[in-house]
Write the structure tokens for this entry.
Amino acid sequence: MNHRTRAATIGLALVWVGALHAAVRSVEQEPCAPALLSETGLWEASRPGAIARGVRRFSPQYPLWSDGAAKARWVYLPAGTTIDTTNPADWEFPVGTKFWKEFTFNGRKVETRLIWRAAADRWIFATYAWNEEQTDAVLAPATGIPGAADLGGGKRHDIPGEIDCQACHGTTRSGPLGFNALQLSTDRDPDAIHGEPLAPGMITLATLEQEGRLSPARPELVAAPPRIRAASPRTRSVLGYLAANCGTCHNPTGGTSFTGPSLKHSDVSDGDDVVARMLLFATTWQVPGQPEGASRMLNALEPDASAILARMRSRRPSSQMPPLATQLRDEQAIAAIERWIALDLGRK
């Protein structure tokens, strides 16, 4: 199937899904994802494509790897509401909060994801596939859309469905993964892997505090912005990358059986201590070529025997890390971690 045929097939499927969704929505009482991106509140009603008043851009300092996609992110907090920061590690967002993330490959917008706290006990996840004209996007099926964009080398980007979103965001305590104190810190890491510049007007931890959006107020996070403390700048940037790309699952409450050092954003502030525990942690996943029981999360003497590197290099479904949402190896991150192990950990 060539590109035009594939695009036409996807387009027809999306129109059908959109019509069906609209019909179902008309008889449902509970809120659900709108059929079109233009109906989600991201844009001004009278100006398609113009970001709506009250919707703000932000950029996490440690971005998630998504097969090299260029991404834009927005958040909407209802007027007069605050984020409950009673638990600094797990913010509670007010009902009505919405997050959007737009994915662009090769200069074309492919998908935009929506996370919407529609009720106190319910987050709605939805993905929207952009049309050929790049004027709007249509709600994707709950199972997603495979092969929506060409990544080169015979690989294609899959648009995730609702179930895929819940696999990472969870079903019991859902919410955004990249909107927290460390990711919004004004003490941004200049060496962050895939780091993006902070543009004027973007939301930061400081603007949230200054605008009274945090409850209780957190002036200490402005006076001493969160950062990963480490003797080496490479340790700081690598741990930031691992927190963004691995920390969602690799933590005590991440929904997996992982029992090693937590890589959650809120748990990596003492960077050198986290690394010391990673060096000692024996993995149940067997690194190829290593003796039974000798595999380590990190191996300072033999970098290639580090489970982290072995799994990042793999794109086999049974061994690749992250296990979802990537088709391509993150070569920049792999090279950065190779240098880090050789230059910093090998000397310990």
Observations:
- DSSP finds eight helices and twelve strands in the chain.
- The longest strand covers residues 108-119.
- The chain has a mean pLDDT of 88.
